[in-house]
Amino acid sequence: MAAESKIDPMHQFQISPLAGHLDGTPFVFTNSALWMLVVLALIWLFMLGGMKRQLVPGRWQVMVEGVTGFVSSMLATNVGPEGRKYVPWVFTIFMFILFANLLGMMPLALLGAQPFTVTSQFTVTGVMAIISFGIVLVTGFWRHKLHFFSLFVPHGTPFILKLLIVPIEFVSFMVRPFSLALRLFVAMIAGHILVEVFGSFVVSGINAGGVMGPAISLLSFVFIVGVMALEVLVCAIQAYVFALLTSLYINDAVNLH
Amino acid sequence: MDLASAKVIGAGLAAIGVGAAAIGVGNVFGSFLESAIRNPAAADSQQGRLFIGFAAAELLGLIAFAVAMIILYAV
Q1: Residue ranges making up the domain that contains B61
Q2: Interface TM-score (ipTM) > 0.90
Q3: Do A117 and A188 meet the contact criterion of CB atoms below 8 Å apart?
């Protein structure tokens, strides 16, 4: 690894305590908690500005109604009329992931703040994935009792094939929370590391001087601009994919297949 | 070969998986575009499936990235 490079791309994901320990308990107010509260405040402001229930909606109300309509139509097409019950949860994770991802992309370091991407922690995405998975399990066993296990047996499979397919389906079912959590957290980490590494190229290119140094800096900077545009797209896609896969899993639990 | 250089080589080899996922993601969107141009009326209804395919293909690349990171920082 580059020995003289002082920029550590993993430093931005470090969780550091902001307030001290509470009477010796392990509960600490960290920078992760702070940014979660910021995300919550932003979502609250966004929703508050749009929930006016005017007959002729203003711009802000159209924006909010667009998001809510998007989530409820996603559940309506994937789950059917039963899907309305699950709109609150899917809407919650969609908004939280979208806002947390986009807030992590903001160049807040220019203002002196220490930015932190909440969704770049496996614990955060893991808890959301486990809750999604728990909803699927509870709904499935509540509605279908032990019939829920027929999820692992596709209709009309010959007996010999069942011996093979049931374990595969079981594993693919059990791996769902991991894949949900891993996808979001690794996508966020990868994007931020990429931007950070090429940012360090800009700095060290200017420091190196000569003709080649600034040229490499300029190339890296242009590359960063492109990557940032791609990252904003990835932020939205990851939020959408998390919500979409959750609604598909809920569909499995509600309707079997 | 000492452990440090073996680690770096291993992480580099793990990065090949990211390229393979790039082929997969390109395949998903390329095939979608190809068929969407043939039948634009049916394209919008398949958007959900497009992103499911994208998510599945992308996940494997991200796992390769996670393996590289584990080799570099955690082992």
Answers
A1: 3-74
A2: no
A3: yes
> What distance, in Å, lies between the first and last C-alpha atoms of chain B?
16
Closest CA to B53 of A85, A244, A220, A58: A244
A149 phi/psi in degrees, rounded to 5? -70, -15
Q: What are phi and psi of A17, to 5 degrees?
A: -70, 140
Report the interhelical angle of A87-105 vs A59-78 (nearest 10°).
Answer: 120
Residues A23-74 have pLDDT tens digits of 666 677 888 888 999 999 999 999 988 877 777 888 888 889 899 999 999 9
| pTM to 2 decimal places | 0.87
CATH number for position B13: 1.20.20.10
Say which residue the tokens 């998510």 belong to.
B55
How many domains would you assign to chain B?
1
Interface residues from chain A to B (CB-CB < 8 Å): 1, 10, 74, 77-78, 179, 182-183, 186-187, 189-190, 237, 240-241, 244-245, 248
Give me the residues paired with residue A17 across strands.
A30
Query: Tokens standing for A196?
Result: 């950070």
Residues of B in contact with A1 (CB under 8 A): 8
pLDDT digits (tens, 9 = 90+) for B5-55: 999 999 999 889 888 999 999 999 999 999 999 999 988 888 888 988 998
How many Cα atoms occupy the beta-carbon half-sphere of A119 within 13 Å? 34
Query: In sequence order, which ranges of A145-211 are alpha helices (DSSP H)?
Result: 159-174, 176-208
Q: Which two tokens stand for residue B11?
A: 């992480």
Are A237 and B69 within 8 A, CB to CB? no
Q: What does each C-alpha distance from B38 to B29, B32, B43, B44 come to in angstroms?
A: 14, 10, 9, 13
Contact assignment for B59 to A182 by CB distance below 8 Å: yes
**Is A248 close to B52, i.e. CB distance below 8 A?**
yes
Quote the DSSP letter at residue A148: G
